């Protein structure tokens, strides 16, 4: 009986300690600094790319022209995140991957 009580006590203590521990990824995420984006996007400087095929080279040239830190291509009916990032260029394309609009966010 004493042996089973100490097993139960040890198991209970172990479960209690495990419940207090957080996920390993949370510790790693806290130690990694998020880069600060200082570049601002100016979509007006990339409007010349509208009407062209959205190749990877065009996306990079449009990103550089707009001064954006990042760029993404948005296709019709594509699900996207809604957070606004002032350093991101959005290149909107049609079904044939032709650029129809360019904006920031």
TrEMBL record:
<dbReference type="InterPro" id="IPR021719">
    <property type="entry name" value="Prot_inh_I78"/>
</dbReference>
<dbReference type="Pfam" id="PF11720">
    <property type="entry name" value="Inhibitor_I78"/>
</dbReference>
<keyword id="KW-0732">Signal</keyword>
<protein>
    <recommendedName>
        <fullName>Peptidase inhibitor I78 family protein</fullName>
    </recommendedName>
</protein>
<feature type="signal peptide">
    <location>
        <begin position="1"/>
        <end position="21"/>
    </location>
</feature>
């Amino acid at each position: 009986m004493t042996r089973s009580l100490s097993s139960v006590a040890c198991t209970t203590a172990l479960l209690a300690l495990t419940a207090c521990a957080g996920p390993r990824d949370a510790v790693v995420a806290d130690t990694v600094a998020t880069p600060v984006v200082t570049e601002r996007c100016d979509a007006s400087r990339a409007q010349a790319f509208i009407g062209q095929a959205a190749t990877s080279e065009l996306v990079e040239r449009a990103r550089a022209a707009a001064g954006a830190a990042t760029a993404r291509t948005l296709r019709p009916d594509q699900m996207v995140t809604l957070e606004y990032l002032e350093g991101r260029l959005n290149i909107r394309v049609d079904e044939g991957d032709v650029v129809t609009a360019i904006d920031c966010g």
